[in-house]
Amino acid sequence: MEINGQIRDKEVRVIGSDGSQLGVMPTRDAMRLAEEEDLDLVKIAPQANPPVVKVLDYGKYKFEQQKKEKEARKNQKVVDIKEIRLSLKIDTGDFNTKLHHAEKFLKNGDKVKVSIRFRGREMAHASQGLDVHRRFAEELSELATVERPPKLEGRSMIMFLAPLLQKEAGKKDKSATKETDKTEPKEQAKAETNKQEEENHA
Questions:
Q1: Is residue 147 within 8 Å of residue 162, measured between CB atoms?
Q2: 77: which residues sit within 8 A by CB, 6+ positions away?
Q3: What is the pTM for the complete model shown?
Q4: pLDDT tens, residue order, the chain (202 aa)
């Protein structure tokens, strides 16, 4: 960022220290304005024609910018990739345990790498590994989307799952609620009709 004597343009568009538009003027005049206020002249839009400069306290401006960047980094969610290892002949109990771990990771906003390592002659049954992966992904379909389908890499088959966006999950919940709302009045009407018929028979 160019400030004060670093600004070599002949003329610039100036914004005053109070945010007012002071118009286009020679750079030397803009420098004089900044000096009179004991402030700096900072180029804030170098691509504009002419470039835009602002009269401000550069030290304070730099501090505020660093503070904003720090806040942005703090609020930025760091996505981790957690690995879940399955096996070709995984039993139901172990499968469900791995599912539970994957659910926890996905709810935390992390991606999940699902891998199956083929041992010895198991390489001849790669299609079974594909079935295990698909089953795992289907069980987690309400929480995750398949970011990368199962792919054989050496003796391992790897799949990546990414957490569904909150909005998408919300849409699913809303559609489920709508379906319930549609069925409830029907059930209620049916119950009232049955009650009426019973009264008529009585």
A1: yes
A2: 109
A3: 0.46
A4: 788 888 889 999 999 999 899 999 999 999 999 999 999 999 989 888 899 999 998 989 889 888 888 888 777 666 678 999 998 888 999 999 999 999 999 998 889 999 999 888 888 888 888 999 999 999 999 999 999 999 988 888 999 999 986 444 444 444 444 444 444 454 554 455 454 555 555 5
160-187 residues labelled b (16+ CB within 10 A) or e (exposed): bbbbbeeeeeeeeeeeeeeeeeeeeeee
Per DSSP, what are the bridge partners of residue 156? 117, 153
> ∠93-98-104 over CA atoms, to 5°?
130
- Residues 127 and 139: their CA atoms lie apart, in Å, by 19
Structure tokens at 133: 């992966």
